[in-house]
Amino acid sequence: MNCCSLHPTCLAALSKHLQPELFKSLCDPSRLAVLTRLACAPGPLTVSEVASCCGAHISGASRHLKMLREAGLVQAEKRGREVVYRPCFNEFIKTLRGLADALEDCCASGECCVTEKTEHQGDEHERT
């Protein structure tokens, strides 16, 4: 089964939640470290604070923060001459819940690739 054979309702529901910029921002270990640091901080952090704790140069931390901000995972707020960053997970949580719901709905309607999973399990069983 390929993606084009999915029911149009499933495709629409999945497409609504599969945001390339969001998932692209999460695929880099350095960005994940930045996001984790922001999530663990007691308050917002500056670029230099993020860079110092994550082993990155200020320019690298700034690029990572920009990408996370564009993906909606981080909010930036100007405070005087500095910009501080804080995590913003509300929309991310909604996206993940929506994606999980869409996947469950597609699987409930028989749209999942259950046969492929079964075939792979059979291959593993034959090798043991």
* Rg, nearest Å: 20 Å
Task: Give the H and E element order.
Answer: HHHEHHEEHH
Query: How helical, in percent, are the residues?
Result: 55-70%
Instruction: List low-pLDDT spans.
Output: 116-120
**What does the overall shape look like?**
elongated
Top-tier CATH class of the domain at 19-104: Mainly Alpha
Domain HTH arsR-type: 11-107
Pfam families: HTH_20
GO molecular function, one term: DNA-binding transcription factor activity
Keywords: DNA-binding, Transcription, Transcription regulation
What features would you describe in this structure?
The chain has 128 residues and is mostly helical. It has a domain at 19-104: Orthogonal Bundle (Arc Repressor Mutant, subunit A). It has helices at 8-17, 20-26, 29-40, 47-54, 58-70, 90-108, 114-127, and strands spanning 45-46, 74-79, 82-87. The chain has a three-stranded antiparallel beta sheet. The protein is elongated, with a radius of gyration of 20 Å. Mean pLDDT is 82; it is low at 116-120. It comes from Desulfocurvibacter africanus subsp. africanus str. Walvis Bay. Keywords: DNA-binding, Transcription, Transcription regulation. One of its GO terms (molecular function) is DNA binding. It holds the Pfam family HTH_20. Residues 11-107 form the HTH arsR-type domain.
Give the tags.
single chain; 128 residues; elongated; transcription regulation; Arc Repressor Mutant, subunit A; mainly alpha
Topology, element by element:
Layout: H1 8-17, H2 20-26, H3 29-40, E1 45-46, H4 47-54, H5 58-70, E2 74-79, E3 82-87, H6 90-108, H7 114-127
Antiparallel strand pairs: 1-3, 2-3
